[in-house]
């Protein structure tokens, strides 16, 4: 597909990623980038696919379904489109696809990607599990031992593609699980990719060091850390960066009261933005982290 040469009056941030196809179509129609005829063609193709999915759902035995089930099935059709258009890597390319490709082709390619992501998610989960931390935080252990298996067993790309079929509550580094924009299999793939990288990072440290650091963190709130909904990697990363800032480049997490006092003095010389840049530079100086560029980029973000 050729790139669109004109500058679009909107960008990726203006498009709702959890409802990507219809959001993009609405913006394009509003700005005159897609004709009313083309919009109707796209919507009719989506309707045709929906009717076929509804027929498959009822196994041809009924011509009626509930409104709620109808919405779920239609969202599954849209999800295939969303996944394909998002995979193109930009709103300009997604618009070109909408304008130049048959909607049926977009749906078929989206279905193939959903299937591909489904199997990839298993590989990603297994890599995350390879470095599972023996730390008794309920939500973490639930996500590592149960939630993925519930998803993998019950997920239906054809009839309920946006539903992950499980509950996920353990927060990620700098992000709560419910704040993620992706849905369905893409959500699972993104979530467990993040957990895989967090587990890989934490595996660089002694488990006893991590538990001691978490114990000290719990003392701040006068409770056992196992009762807190906290991200393990966040606590580990904070201590590690603090030690790096003090010139300690070993993979230890211990901070003495003297270290903390020195850290307060050191941090007083930096603005918040400069401190972030300093932290990123310090991370890049650690070969064990920088050699895993995916992990490095995740940690510095």
Relevant terms:
mainly alpha, 2 domains, 13 helices, 64% helix, elongated
Descriptive overview:
The chain is mostly helical. The chain folds into two domains: 12-113, no CATH class; 121-300, no CATH class. The protein is built from 13 helices and no strands. Helix 5 (103-130) crosses helix 6. It is elongated. It starts with 19 loop residues before the first helix and ends with a helix.
Q: Globular, elongated, flat, extended or rod-shaped: what is the shape?
A: elongated
The averaged pLDDT comes out at 92
Fraction of helical residues: 55-70%
Order of helices and strands: HHHHHHHHHHHHH
The quaternary organization reads as single chain
Q: Give start-end ranges of low-pLDDT stretches.
A: 1-5
In short:
Helices cover 64% and strands 0% of the residues.
How are the SSEs ordered, and which strands pair?
Elements: H1 20-30, H2 36-58, H3 67-87, H4 91-100, H5 103-130, H6 138-154, H7 184-202, H8 207-220, H9 232-245, H10 257-267, H11 272-284, H12 287-290, H13 293-300
Helix pairs in contact: 2-3, 3-5, 5-6, 5-7, 7-9, 7-13, 8-9
């Amino acid at each position: 597909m050729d790139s669109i040469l004109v500058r679009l009056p909107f960008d990726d941030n203006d498009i709702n990623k959890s409802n990507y196809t219809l959001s993009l179509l609405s913006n394009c129609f509003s700005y005159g980038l897609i004709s009313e005829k083309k919009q109707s063609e796209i919507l009719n193709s989506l309707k045709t696919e929906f009717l076929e999915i509804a027929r498959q759902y009822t196994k041809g035995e009924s011509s009626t379904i509930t409104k709620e089930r109808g919405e779920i099935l239609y969202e599954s059709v849209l999800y295939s489109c969303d996944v394909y258009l998002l995979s193109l890597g930009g709103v300009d390319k997604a618009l070109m696809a909408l304008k130049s490709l048959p909607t049926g082709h977009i749906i078929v390619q989206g279905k193939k990607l959903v299937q591909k992501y489904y199997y990839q998610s298993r590989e990603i989960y297994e890599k995350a599990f390879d470095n599972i931390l023996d730390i008794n935080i309920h939500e973490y252990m639930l996500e590592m031992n149960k939630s993925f298996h519930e998803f993998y067993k019950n997920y239906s790309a054809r009839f309920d593609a946006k539903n992950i079929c499980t509950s996920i509550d353990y927060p990620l580094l700098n992000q709560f699980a419910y704040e993620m924009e992706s849905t369905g299999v893409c959500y699972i793939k993104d979530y467990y990719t993040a957990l895989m990288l967090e587990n890989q990072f934490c595996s660089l440290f002694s488990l006893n060091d991590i538990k001691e650091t978490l114990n000290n963190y719990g003392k701040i709130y006068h409770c056992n850390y196992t009762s807190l909904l906290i991200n393990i990697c966040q606590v580990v990363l904070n201590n590690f960066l603090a030690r790096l800032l003090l010139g300690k480049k070993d993979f230890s997490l211990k901070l003495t009261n003297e270290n903390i006092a020195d850290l307060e003095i050191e941090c007083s010389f930096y603005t918040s933005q400069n401190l972030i840049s300093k932290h990123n530079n310090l991370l890049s100086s650690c070969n064990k982290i920088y050699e895993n560029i995916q992990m490095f980029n995740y940690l510095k973000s």
